[in-house]
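Training component of the fellowship. As part of building independent skills, the fellow (R.M.) carried out the full modelling exercise for a liganded target. The chosen ligand was NDP. The inputs are recorded below so that the supervisory panel can assess the work.
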Amino acid sequence: MSEVFQNYVNGQWQASVSDATMAIADPNTGSVGSQVPTGAPEDAQAAITAAASALSGWARTPLTERIDAVKRLAEALNHRAEVLASTIASEVGTPLKISHYVQTMAPIRNCANFVKVAEAFEWSREVANSLVVREPVGVVACITPWNFPLHQIVLKVVPALLCGNTVVLKPSELTPETTRLFAEAVHEAGFPAGVVNIVNGNGAQVGMPMVTSKLVNMVSFTGSTATGQAVMREAAATVKKVSLELGGKSPSVILPSADLLRAIKGTLGGCMLNNGQTCNALTRVLVPEDKLDEFKTLIAAEVKKLTVGASLEATTRLGPVISATQQQRVQDLVRKGIEQGASVIASVTEIPSEGFFVSPMVLEVKPDNVLAREEVFGPVLSVLTYKTVEEAVAIANDTDYGLAAAVWGEPEEAMSVANQLRAGQVDLNGAPFNPLAPFGGFGMSGIGREAGSAGLEEFLEYKSIQQPLPAKE
Ligand code: NDP
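Fellow's submitted model of the complex:
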């Protein structure tokens, strides 16, 4: 067992009780990079017990002290920013520059955002003869995926801690070095023992025991819709709170009044970010039928600019996908889509032969094509056409998901379309991501919201304390 990937339980480093490991391949080369513990239910139990013991002390710790601890965590992460950026670039395949800004600095800044939100939050209020107070939910299990490993950890762990919960974190086993760096930062921040516990291992061995434990009061999960459904099912036995941030098939609606080139650039950027492995990726673009030829010419020229290469190379715009499984999944879905009638508009065929690279691709599809319906989680953009704006709205909403959307066009019309879309966030004309706005989805994209004050509130219960009414004269 490698000493590197130990669990962090009750303020101490601990090896898994199991010697079993699995090999993790380097996405840039395809060769085995590290061996990580698969973990065992006993590891999860130890972490849950520690979190349960620490709960009452942390819940009673004044907010100012909890805030100070989170500030120390942000500082410890900031000290590691450079190594975090290169580690995430290596483990996930994110191009280094994007890894620095999006994967590393954005989540570090988000710690400060949550602190501001906690400082301004209304922790109690009077409603007639009741004092309504907000209290921590309890022991929170945070289960996170590999695509934005630090970001997804911060979005859960930081607000949960600010609210006075104790945490058991199970990150993806595909990003073990990132997990280790985060655990070191937690240790350096000096949280009381048991307040933050981190367990390596896979979903079956470590994740599911957290979901089913009676001592866990809430599961905050990000990942695939299929696993999210399993989490929700299994959590039902103990009636615990569940928040789910799942997949998407987000539309980018280009209205006839749009600046077409700007819309294409924005959509392509939103689709290809992190090599297409982003839950809110804009993966379906809706184009007015009479603009399709012009669209094809313009997007082909943009796709040509996508340099595919090793994630640590400065010239790389797109790196590999994370694993052989993911590479196979993307290739299979593209093959299936083409069998169902999809036609390739543009692609990059010059890609490295070693490692888990896939060709970025833009394909014209019909609304019932698998590429118009299923989350690919790779650099694949599906193009659909429409005749009227009403039809565009109907196609955009014709999905099981509802995480994100974009609209391009004359501002008033774009706003009117945004109001008709069933999605948790809608970006108008390339507006930037707002880390303070609620993030989450309609439909099968999930339950609950992350980020900002809505993301903080997820980790709180209400308690109403009634006071006697004044005696009648
Ligand atoms: P999963 O949903 O399988 O994994 C997400 C997290 O859940 C990981 O930490 C995983 O652990 C854990 N997990 C897996 N099974 C269980 C279980 N039964 N109980 C508790 N926890 C569990 O996603 P994958 O990483 O395998 O990716 C598969 C697909 O999911 C992608 O192709 C993509 O479509 C989608 N996805 C969507 C994301 C989003 O942000 N919406 C993020 C990631 C993936 P471990 O993997 O270590 O076993």
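The panel noted the following from the submitted structure. Residues 143-147, 170, 172-173, 202-204, 207-208, 211, 222-224, 227, 230-231, 246-247, 279, 326, 329, 375, 377 surround NDP (CB under 6 Å). The first strand starts at residue 7 and ends at 9.
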